[in-house]
Structure to design on (147 residues):
């Protein structure tokens, strides 16, 4: 079964840039698809913005694993993928779903520092009999863990 994780966001392009850097993923480039749709009159310019000098969807951005297949005509990943969609309401309460990053115990401190430099915030350190990890928030306040 093919699937993707969809995350609500206030700024989908900023979230995509953060998570692409955090996971060593690629930000999907939909500019060729968008240009074709614009020239065919299938979409209107109000659905589009410019990000890093390229056409991008106004309310959507996605990241994909760089080794997974993707559709070169549309830029859409066909494997491990996270889609960020703009929503009008802010995040409320604790996540019901979150990502766990596993850089390995010897790399956790360096990974946490790298993520903080990208705009993440450390919430707390957890040490339990079953293991230890760092609970963090991405730039929009979504919680995740670094093990």
């Amino acid at each position: 079964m093919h699937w993707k994780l969809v995350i609500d966001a206030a700024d989908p392009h900023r979230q995509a840039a953060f998570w692409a850097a955090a996971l060593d993923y690629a930000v999907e480039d939909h500019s060729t698809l968008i240009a074709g749709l614009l020239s065919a009159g299938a979409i209107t310019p109000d659905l589009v913005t410019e990000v890093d000098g390229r056409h991008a969807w106004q309310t959507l951005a996605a990241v994909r694993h760089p080794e997974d297949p993707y559709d070169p005509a549309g830029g859409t990943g066909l494997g491990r993928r996270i889609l960020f969609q703009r929503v009008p309401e802010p995040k409320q309460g604790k996540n019901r779903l979150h990502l766990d990053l596993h850089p390995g115990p010897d790399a956790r401190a360096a990974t946490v520092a790298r993520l903080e430099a990208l705009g993440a915030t450390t919430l707390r350190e957890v040490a339990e009999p079953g293991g230890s990890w760092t609970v963090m928030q991405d730039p929009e306040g979504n919680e995740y863990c670094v093990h």
Q: What stands out?
A: The CA atoms of residues 25 and 78 lie 13 Å apart. The first strand starts at residue 5 and ends at 9.
